[in-house]
Amino acid sequence: MCGISGILSPALAEAHRNDIVRQMMKLQQHRGPDDSGTYSDAQISLGHNRLSILDLAHGKQPIFNESKNVVVIYNGEMYNYRELRADLLQKGHVFSTNTDTEVIVHAFEEWGEAAFIRFNGMFAFALWDIAKQELYLVRDRLGIKPLYYLTDGKKVCFSSEIKAMNALPDFNLAIDPDGLARYLCFQNQFGANTLYSHVQKVEPASYHKVNRDLLCTKKQYFQLQFSMDYSKSFSDWTEEFSSVFNASVKRHMIADVRVGSYLSGGFDSSLVAWGAQKNLAPEQLFTFNGYFAEGPGYDESPLAEEVARSIGSNHHKVVITSDDFRNEIEKIVYHLDEPMMGPGSFSQYVVAREIAKEVKVVLTGHGGDEFMGGYPVYKAALLKENPFRYRKEIFNGLTVPDFIRLAYFSIFPMFRPLLRSGLHVLFTPRDITALLGDGILPNSLENNLMAEAIPFIHSDLKPFNKTLHNYIKGYLPGLFIVEDKISMAHSLESRTPFCDNEMLALSTRIPADMKLHGGQLKAISKAFAKDKLPASLYKQPKRGFPTPVHLWFQGPLKKWMEDRILQSGNSVFNAKAVKKIWSTFLSLRHDNLYTYNYGCKLFSLLCVNLLLTQSVNGKKIQVN
Fold it and tell me: What's the mean pLDDT in 22-50?
């Protein structure tokens, strides 16, 4: 992983552009502390911070083609670069490194824009066609790697992290009221949107082509499509999953540095760790588990240790405490740029901090639940689709927590239209109206939020595939951004074998009754792992990675929280509304989903308040 920065602006003097880009690089140095490089001409300035993973000695960027008329700066990993390299060598291209980065410039020479769909990996890159004076900003098909940009008619500026934009002398990060409402409601930003005015993302599976006159053409190079194959049996799908998954993990092990793996005690991370260890000698794989001492509901370390013993990994445990929260939360808010996806970012940050002491690359289980049907919301989708045809898939093995979640996504949408998207809503439009004061409240708030959710509600897909579509397009990109920012804060590269191109293609072919075969969530991947992982793994309820912030906010962090959400002079929130939330929260006496939900609400308010206390490159973040 790396950090990329750049400015395309014929109007700006080259020396001035270069100074700004160097400042952008400084703000992103944590993304690539091993090396740096720049390129500039009369039109553009490019900067690169390198975290060395492949071809450590010769992979310095920017990288050119043979004739020096195409240059690229790249953040990512391309897992099929060896196959593409061999093809390009046969076609006569000459390589000077063994990096995946160099494949990009030669592939662009050979195939032009059609090259982008050939890349299997996680990436965001900027390619400057020197001969044609055209800039390409390109992002991987799932949005695993971030790429931000802004344009004002005089320049196009882009970077791996939003904070780098504050290096521009004539720009200051300002929170967009609509972006704030999106965050409070969905804990996320969709499509090209960010929390900030004027700053946008290149969308997944897309590229922007910008000429020297700053005219931009936006295109998608990949479209998500579903083509169900009803001819195969459950055992056929399990066998195909085995082949695709094993190949994906092997591809994701490509590195010239040590590779580790998260091992949360959950199913997906355990399966990825098993696959990784299979490709290494005993105990060469370092596995890492984060846990809390607040009780068995927050401690999966015994199960993670059992998995580690069974696969033969070199296992490390990381205890996460309320003191960690107090000491690290401001750093986390800074590194995220824009808060999203709830308290899990804190837990990830603490574990990543310890992982980075041992390895430079870590594998994660991201995508396993989304692609293979691991959430109760998938059962809710089948309930909408055909409750009689899918009665076994819906009701077999349904636990009480699963039933509650099933009801949440089946009954509540009748009364709360936003929930028809299948995406979780934290603060309702009514809540947000109470929280945001005059001058901040977006006009037609509920209509605005509904407009955000409509692409996830109206679709020609059947409910089950629509749910998968919504998670791929709406939920996963936010998770990926959090994972990227949190790991790169520690100069750590995280990889997601479940999100390989071939895994995505497989997921969009498997019918619903196969993914939830016999009422079992993730039935195919669990059947595949039956003889590979401990039997106790199958007996555990699904937990995710719950962070006991609600217990800390009612206990050791109570006074600390009050100082930051009730007495903060930087808050944009209505004090009376915040006090009501706090008072209701303190009255809750049970450690359950309801209390945890209130803890997540308070965490969200805290993150916004802390964001407004911080400065980036000497500039305070404002609110429009």
Answer: 94
How do the domains of the chain map onto residue ranges? 2-172+202-220, 234-371+472-510+521-539
Question: Which amino acid makes up residue 528?
Answer: F
Q: Which two tokens stand for residue 169?
A: 């002398």
Strands (E), 430-589: 493-495
Poorest-pLDDT segment among 211-225, 421-435, 518-532: 421-435
CATH topology of domain 2-172+202-220: Glutamine Phosphoribosylpyrophosphate, subunit 1, domain 1 (3.60.20)
* Mean per-residue pLDDT, 104-133: 97
Backbone angles phi, psi at 522, to 5 degrees: 55, 45
| In contact, 393 and 463? CB cutoff 8 Å | no
Superfamily of domain 234-371+472-510+521-539: HUPs (3.40.50.620)
Tens digit of each residue's pLDDT (9 = 90 or more) over 181-207: 999 999 999 999 999 999 999 999 999
| Mean pLDDT (whole number) for 56-82 | 90
From edge to edge, which strands make up the β-sheet containing 493-495? 314-319, 286-291, 259-262, 361-363, 493-495
pLDDT at 1: 63
Mean pLDDT of the 447-462 span: 80
Helix 593-611 and helix 558-565, axial crossing angle in degrees, nearest 10: 50
> Rounded CA gap, 602 and 258, in Å?
38
- CB within 8 Å of 41: residues ≥ 6 apart: 14, 130
CB 590 within 8 A of CB 610: no
- Residue 544: how many other CB atoms lie within 10 Å: 11
Q: Whole-angstrom Cα distance, residue 238 to residue 220?
A: 32
